[in-house]
User: Fold these one by one.
Assistant:
Number 1:
Amino acid sequence: MATQSAPTAPALPVSLDDVVAARMRIMDSIVATPTLVSRTLSDLTGATVYLKFENLQFTAAYKERGALNTLLQLPANTSGVIAASAGNHAQGLSYHANRLGIPSTIVMPKNTPIVKVTQTQGHGATVILEGETFDAAYAHARKLEAEQGLTFVHPFDDPRIIAGQGTVALEMLEAVPDLDTLVVPIGGGGLISGMATVAKAQAHPIEVIGVQAELYPSMYNQINGTEMPCAGDTLAEGIAVKVPGGITREIVAALTDDIVLVGERRLEEAVSLLLQIEKTVVEGAGAAGLAALLSEPERFRGKKVGIVLCGGNIDTRLLANVLLRDLARSGRLARLRVRLQDRPGALFHVARIFHEQGVNIIEVYHQRIFTTLPAKGLITDIECETRDRAHLERLMTALRRAQYEVSQTELA
């Protein structure tokens, strides 16, 4: 009796051969960024941590790979390309389009930070500001595509984009062939789709874990059948995508092992650690992989883990805020509220205690009017710099022993 063979699973939209072909196309014009072990982060997390420095691309993000792979496959008579993007896709596409002599148009929401508009224009693109949201900018880009005969280049839901992004994994596995796990940020899903395609084609098993911000669990919702909201201001705006791609969803569902959600505090901590330890600047999305290890250390302990630092385009003021908040959480920077009596020498006696404890005073704020204290009462907020949390605690103990009421302003 003849046996009936099991049905063959349908082929996915992108194969390992597609990624290898993409690499051959783009390799002369893309930085083969290093994959380096971080001894300090390995000690901190309990995993052996390898970092892929995609923030060292010319436009400081991996998006160049997929954009260039797509541009090189367009017909010779292409009149121009268009995209909707307020981030790294805009810069990657416009840079390589300009280099290849292809006119590019980028539609951005009107509230896009001026630095991103200027950087994209600097790569030769025509920038059009339209609408208050990405959806409005996207709709306008598709309208211009039809009206002007332009070619729309999607930021993630295109097999050519996905194949280009997958070249990140080819380079990582050439540098470290025995990686156990890849931890990859997910926005629309282009990067993880390409990398999972490569990882799951290897001779040894490689776990592929996606990472999303808790505020934007869009792919997590689609894979797990949940309906968590996607909204809010996240540090990882590069992966703040409300609706992931259809092609990418198919690949993620088939090839990834799990998706981890990370909170804003872990994202901030990861950005700060990468700057302090590795001396490298990453944006929130670029730090998402490390944030996952910090959130769930037991899950990755003892494994060889590859993390993609997928981008480094972070606003300098935002970066400064992240670093200062991290100093505050560690106790090295603090704001103390001290209740005084409004009399001569009151502030001098408090300052003397700071001096005795070896604490540097940065700023002093007096509050006499807008307070619930009696008319002779005084609140003083003192920003100070200490060596660590223990040093701060010694200062607060000394103030209380001197009969001062003191409290610390805590961060969320």
Note: The chain has a mean pLDDT of 92.
Number 2:
Amino acid sequence: MKIALLDDNPEQLERNQRFLNALPVEIVTASLTAKTFLQEVKLSKPDILILDLNLGDSYMTGMEVAFELKLPVLFASSNTPEYVKEMERLKREESLCVDHITKPFTEYEFQKTFTRFLQEVKFFWNQHYVTLDLGKQKRTKIAIESIVYLVADKASGSESNNKQIYFTNRKAENLIDFSFSKMEDKGMLKTQFITIHKSFRVNVNHIKHYNKKEEVIEVEVFNAFGKLETMKLPVSENYQSFLKSFRK
């Protein structure tokens, strides 16, 4: 997994990097300020954050960074007791893996704590990701929450089992040999991916609006130009009863 480090103490930042070198992870970002850190993680796309809490500047605290990025986070700081309630809120409201270790700590203490934390993250990672065949990319790991909707690939003909899949963070892809009837076997539950039409399955968490008059729902997807674009998807009569009570 990819790790991003933030600590305003250069010596501590270097120590944390050194402690991680013995573990099966990749450090993709190591920053001394929150502003630089937030800029860099947009490109490095880490899986886990290791954050100091008080950063010595007025831009943001480590806790504010954690709430901004909403990624699994290990807080490594000298003042963790002051933030325990906020850590609990972050874990509860964002359903994230959250842990802490209080400075000063030894290499052994850090590695022991991080290894246990990594095991927890991997467990939840496997619960919230699916493995799909996207075009020529076989067995691609995809965050379930990044999937907006799936639609039958009409261009391939009715005999094809291919689909088009749309995301919040990457352009649409061809989903190869994928059956709607076996979505739950892949980990995509019917309670989350609802049917609105025989050709569409939509992540209910991404429905922005249901237009009863036009009989369409509105969703936002990542387009070919790297921006979010609103799309309208048709709702068949058979599936309108659920959406009539939908409030968003």
Note: The mean pLDDT is 89.
Number 3:
Amino acid sequence: MNTNIKSTSFGHIAAFFTIVIWGTTFIATKVLLRVLTPVEILFCRFFLGYLILWLVTPKGLRLDNRRQEFYFMAAGLLGVTLYFLLENFALTLTLAANVGVIIAIAPFFTALFDYFFLHGERPGPRFFIGFIVAITGICLISFRGDNTVQLNPAGDLLAITAAVVWAGYSTFTKKISSFGYGTILTTRRIFFYGLLFMVPALFIFGFHLDLSVFIEFKNLANILFLGFGASALCFVTWNLAVKLLGPVKTSVYIYMVPVITVVTSVIILHEHITLPAILGIGLTIAGLFLSESRLNFKRQKIVNEKEELRS
């Protein structure tokens, strides 16, 4: 029982740590967009992340069953290639605020996928109430100040697709975690397929990387942050959290991304925080706890019932 509590606690720490880093990546990306295209940034960060994971764990991964390869291919295609391409193109067609809100619905799709494809827990009322509360908070955060709600069908549809794709990625990583391999090794294999599926996009959207841009320390520091921190390290900690908590409990931490982004903007960019943003942060955090408490309550009930049967 104590071991389970420690594992669960570590899973929550890993998920929160990941979200804190991912919530600050917009600063590094914004700096690099001055000298690189979105596709160039995407390829560089994951290629660098892949190399770092090889340096950390240079041994190869030998699969017990060749059919398991399909899950790694699917995870790489969904979580690395498609998700980030869809998100980047969505940002060119619709408001960043729209994308931030729409991407945050990923936990909803994750819960459905987990229930239907992995035979996980059925999402209950508390989960959906928490989802609604969190999305309300995220809307207040995203559409604050001069931002206004503006529908852009093409971009918004791409953002919705990205949310569904991330839910699929979380589902496949949960299945991969059941194979019993190390998290670093599995993440590295997912990166490999993500980079492989990314190659056609490099030719389609143009890839003319000028390495001289990294002579400037600011550019080098930001690509290292994205490659080592946001990619190599955070995908390992996220996949570890999925392994320990499950895809649904881990995915609800996505609600926190806009919160981290606002806090970072205030601390680093000295942006002004508005009253709607403060209210939105409170609602988002409340929604996360509502969703999590529903799952914790149900899981604890199951544990208690098992202990009663044993006694």
Note: The first helix runs from residue 2 to 22.
